[in-house]
Amino acid sequence: MTITLDPGHGQFKNPGVLAGYYEGTRVFMLAYELKKELEKYEDVTVRVTREKLEDDPSLTTRGKSAGKNGSTLFISLHTNAASNPTAHGVSVFCSVKRPGSEELGCLLGEAVVKTMKKHTDITYLRGVMTRTQSGDGGVIEDYYGVIRNSVKYDCVKYSYIIEHGFHTNETECAYMYGDGSLSEIARAEADVIGGYFGLKKKKDPDPGYVEYTVKPGDTLIGIARKYGTTYKILAEYNGIKDPDLIHTGQIIKIPCPAEINVGDVVRLREGVYTYFPGGKKFSSWVKDYDYVVSKTADNSGGPVYRGGARCVLLGAKVDRKSGEHGSPINSWASLEYIEKVYYENKQER
User: Fold this and answer.
1) Residue-number span of the structural domain to which 321 is assigned
2) Same domain for 138 and 228?
3) Which one of 21, 96, 161, 176 is most buried, counting C-beta atoms within 10 A?
């Protein structure tokens, strides 16, 4: 199954009521979060009409690309705008040429509303509707160019515009601009699409590894201690026969992300300024503490991703001198951005 995602507008198009919010930028990021979630299913190919953030193809090009690449489903992603700052809610537009597609449109709209309302308390489904105009010879056709041009191709059975709340509403704009909001919506929409088409999830990929470049004076034991593992594990994982023989510039693969568990104490790596890729910068004081891992999965037991990276939830702050626990920070952090640490009262593995 091929799916085309169309992040509306261009990079700096349609500013929101919050400084720094642009519809064209946020929906671009949403499209790639949704692409990542959809590609977790077997036999799914996802195309995006904007390959680069600064791209802004014509409405005709966007719509026709879905037909040219053989897509079954086309979704144009947007946030809405109104002169009235209190206007709010989610709208879904579908094609007058595709009767019966309202069902999936309604499911998608309801999923977005359910996700947003947990945070905004105001979001509702404004409607799943068509908007039409009179074409050549008085023929009724879709008003929106992206929908109109996508359904010129028989392969495109479902074509939608989804307005994810209003960027002119402070509450909904704040949610769409918040950390983790786009990945949360993407998961909700992907779940609907996967369920509707009976798609099967791929087997969970290996959580992977991080790479460390050996510096002068490094030892395998020292590297292992830094990453919360043992030199024997690193030697076996990297096929190193003699642990005493590593050289400057050598790449050591470290499988530590899979070994971080609830209750482990971790700290953010040097040179890291966000909790996960693409996230906002954290306050400088965050680096002054270590943290107890409070979650490694969501409530259903599945892995949690932010900015395309698998994350764990940082809980209680830990004073580095005393080891005493303080108030929780409750922020998801990428496994690639944290390292396990040990205090004197803890045994090293």
Assistant:
1) 260-349
2) no
3) 176
